[in-house]
């Protein structure tokens, strides 16, 4: 997995005669101002043509953050490394500067004796290997464990509890405190919850639940538990995927001939069993199945 955190956009000026043709040499750098509301949209439009051609390699883009994910089978990395070269070539052709210092590679390999891999070379520099990295606010480790991510979420939520306690001193209505909690604290606790909750340990879940209990004492009313939040969000997300034929995971939510239940996804490891699609299918089966 190669992650590119940052790149610059310096398109060539066009539409006017260059200063060189007038006997003057001047470098003109154009681009989008940082912090502009339209910058992410314009950047997404500009990089829309940057895609992956190989089925086993996926290119994910969010604003100026780009992640390349490759599935390596039988030690064949040709497709993965080929897409890296294509990405570098595309950026060079389209006047995008890759920041190799902010690029890391993380390998997820659960074999007992994995073979050593040669480093990826990006812009004549080897890409450093990372044990974990933060992908859009969610910390992913090479062991696919979530202690580090939950520790980060707990810290953020506890910091925001300070503001809830300060608002309580102004004797605000309970409804306003609940709205503040939902928008500022619960949004942190449930960040990517459909991904990590089922695989998280009971100890880590208890840490987040203690934050909810503290908020209940401050506000003076009961709040949805972490389990309830996970179930509601997983069912909602699974229902959206099941209703969207264009979604890549739509085929995983197939109904049985009776139409009352979904087909169960076969899993061989507990890691796969605790991932989103198997657990979401079980949650949909435990609730009334809405007709599609």
Automatic annotation (TrEMBL):
Organism of this sequence: Hemibagrus guttatus
Biased composition (Basic residues): 1-11
UniProt entry keywords in alphabetical sequence: Membrane, Transmembrane, Transmembrane helix
Location of region: Disordered: 1-20
Every Reverse transcriptase domain range: 1-140
The protein's name in its UniProt record: Reverse transcriptase domain-containing protein
One Gene Ontology MF term: methyltransferase activity
InterPro entries: AlkB_hom8_N (IPR015095), DNA/RNA_pol_sf (IPR043502), RT_dom (IPR000477)
Segments passing through the bilayer: 178-199
Cross-referenced PROSITE patterns: RT_POL (PS50878)
């Amino acid at each position: 997995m190669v992650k590119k955190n940052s790149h610059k956009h310096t398109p060539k000026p066009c539409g006017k005669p260059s200063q060189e043709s007038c006997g003057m040499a001047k470098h003109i750098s154009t681009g989008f101002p940082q912090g502009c509301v339209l910058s992410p949209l314009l950047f997404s439009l500009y990089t829309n043509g940057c895609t992956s051609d190989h089925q086993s390699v996926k290119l994910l883009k969010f604003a100026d953050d780009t992640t390349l994910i490759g599935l390596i089978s039988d030690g064949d990395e040709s497709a993965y490394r080929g897409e890296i070269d294509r990405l570098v070539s595309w950026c060079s052709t389209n006047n995008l500067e890759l920041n190799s210092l902010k690029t890391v590679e993380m390998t997820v390999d659960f074999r007992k004796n994995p073979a050593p891999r040669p480093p990826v070379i990006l812009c004549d520099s080897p890409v450093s290997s990372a044990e974990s990295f933060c992908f859009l606010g969610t910390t992913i480790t090479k062991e696919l464990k979530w202690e580090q991510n939950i520790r980060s979420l707990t810290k953020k939520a506890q910091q925001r509890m300070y503001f809830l306690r300060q608002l309580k001193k102004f004797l605000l209505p309970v409804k306003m405190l609940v709205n503040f909690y939902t928008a500022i604290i619960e949004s942190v606790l449930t960040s990517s919850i459909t991904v990590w909750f089922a695989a998280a340990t009971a100890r880590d879940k208890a840490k987040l639940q203690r934050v909810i209990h503290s908020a209940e004492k401050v506000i003076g009313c009961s709040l949805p538990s972490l389990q309830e939040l996970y179930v509601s969000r997983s069912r909602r997300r699974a229902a959206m995927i099941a209703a969207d034929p264009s979604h890549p995971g739509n085929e995983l939510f197939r109904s049985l001939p009776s139409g009352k239940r979904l087909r169960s996804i076969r899993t061989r490891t507990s890691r796969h069993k605790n991932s989103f699609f198997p657990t979401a299918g079980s949650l949909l089966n435990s609730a009334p199945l809405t007709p599609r």
